[in-house]
DUF493 domain-containing protein (Galbibacter orientalis DSM 19592), 98 residues
Amino acid sequence: MQEKDKKEVEEFYERLKVELDRTTTWPALYLYKFIVPTSDEKIKQIETIFDNTGAVIKTKTSSNGKYTSLSIEVNLDSSDAVIHKYKEVSAVEGVISL
């Protein structure tokens, strides 16, 4: 990742943290939505990130079967915890965070 891209990503997470702290009382339920190319390996990678968190994970494959959406609802203690999970999931190749 180029330096400019890294800066933009960090600025995005800083804005997200401010917004989450402004609108949320922690701990709170947080809903993640991700889309990945349909691959058991990629889906498992994301599910593993949320292992032992009590997360409820729902998957749905697109009509053409190329993509799978994951909705993950989990109780988290802080905006930092939300952002930490986003960063972990961003390491999965091809993932799109919504």
Remarks:
- The chain has one domain: 3-97.
